[in-house]
Amino acid sequence: MTFAAVEKGAANPGDSLVRDVSLPALVIHQQALEHNIRWMQTFVSNSGAELAPHGKTSMVPALFQRQLEQGAWAITLATAVQTRAAYAHGVRRVLMANQLVGTPNMALIADLLQDTMFDFHCMVDHPDNVAALGEYFASRGLRLNVMIEYGVPGGRCGCRTEQEVLALADAIAAQPALALTGIEGYEGVIHGDQAVAGIKAFAASLVRLAVELQDKGAFALDRPIVTASGSAWYDLIAEAFDAQAVRERFLSVLRPGSYVVHDHGIYKDAQCCVLDRRAELTEGLRPALEVWAHVQSMPEPGFAVIALGKRDVAFDAGMPNPLLRFRAGVLPAKGEDVSACKVTAVMDQHAFMTIAPGCELKVGDIISFGTSHPCLTFDKWREGCLVDDNLQVIESFDTCF
Predict the structure, then answer these.
(1) Helix axis angle, 266-277 relative to 234-243, nearest 10°?
(2) Which CATH number belongs to the domain containing residue 335 in this structure?
């Protein structure tokens, strides 16, 4: 498996991050990446479930292929355009954890369904959407797999009550061009001091609905899909599904996405909670994603401007975290801890950083930054590089945003 080639001028295999690569750059560490893919696949398989990692995190087809090669059952995506991009790179089973709305988007999926080997499932949560899908796919002579999305009051999409779910199943049954293949939920919108209890109750309700729908013959599959799980609470969903013997009647599918590169912020904190809840897990995920940038200016004592900004790194869930400082062009590359420095603000293409006492920086130095919320770092890049432990570029990759 190799990463896709990128445009001329991007990092090339054999390049050194501190000498040859134009910065800022999106960097993935190979060892941590491979650990994370194996770790999550093992966790999900040991839980009696299947893994359909959410591809919208990275939109890097080369990562999709690595996940599939390690045993992922499908790739989860959020839009018809993302689905088309994944299909173009060889993905043949997709859960679109979203509603398929609008005739142009329906047309994209209908075109892909001309390939009878393409297994696609999308979500529905309203009779109007069910009717529109039924009419469109009937006109194309196709049958679309749909799953009912079950949500929570004040949350995101999804039927708000069990009664709405059951009524929607009847509406789907009235559409010959639709096949009900499962039920889906997303627990990541449940917050507060009682989040754990709320998530467990939600998962139990999701399974209860699945059983009721199966008992009344609503599903088009002998083993319907039951799926939930983002990147923070996947252990609770796996536990709830397994405790209720879902594996015996249903295909349970977990959909975390950010695990593939993890982070230095919100998901690092979430992983600590997972390890606290699961004492048998001796090691967790490792942060694999960084953004590297130069010290651009030092206009005042104790203050540096970094050539890194909102167009390069996520800032919705916290400022980027300074990790290590490297001397540009100096090999072998030896990093020095600069984690006591602090990014206080970011502009479009500049970051303001206070310099910790005793930290000697120079203009042209290189700093590696950790991120919080990898989804909104990936989408700022069209290309990136995979590096080994010696910070040599192994492969380059494209994103498909």
Answers:
(1) 40
(2) 2.40.37.20
Contacts for 312 with CB less than 8 Å, ≥ 6 apart: 24, 291, 293, 349, 377, 380, 381
161 token code pair: 């009550």
β-partners of residue 227 are: 184, 253
Q: Which residue has the tokens 């988007």?
A: 105
Backbone conformation region of residue 15, classed left if phi is above 0, alpha if psi is from -120 to 50, else beta:
beta
C-alpha span between 169 and 95 (Å, rounded): 19
244 or 57, which is more confident: 57
Instruction: With beta carbons less than 8 A apart as the criterion, state whether 45 and 63 touch.
Output: no
Q: Could you give the number of structural domains in the chain? A: 2
pLDDT at 314 exceeding the cut of 60: yes
Q: What range defines the domain where residue 12 resides?
A: 1-29+265-401
Q: What is the chain's length?
A: 401
Q: Is 59 within the bounds of a domain?
A: no
CB-CB contact of 247 with 240 (8 Å)? no
- CATH number, position 96: 3.20.20.10
pTM attached to this predicted model: 0.95
Number of Cβ within 10 Å of residue 195's Cβ equals 16
pLDDT digit string, tens, across residues 116-134: 999 999 999 999 999 999 9
In the predicted structure, residue 372 carries a pLDDT above the cut 80:
yes
H/E segment holding residue 145: strand 144-150
- pLDDT value for 9: 44
Query: Any idea what DSSP says for residue 257?
Result: -
Which runs of consecutive H residues, i.e. helices, occur in 47-154? 61-69, 80-88, 103-112, 127-139
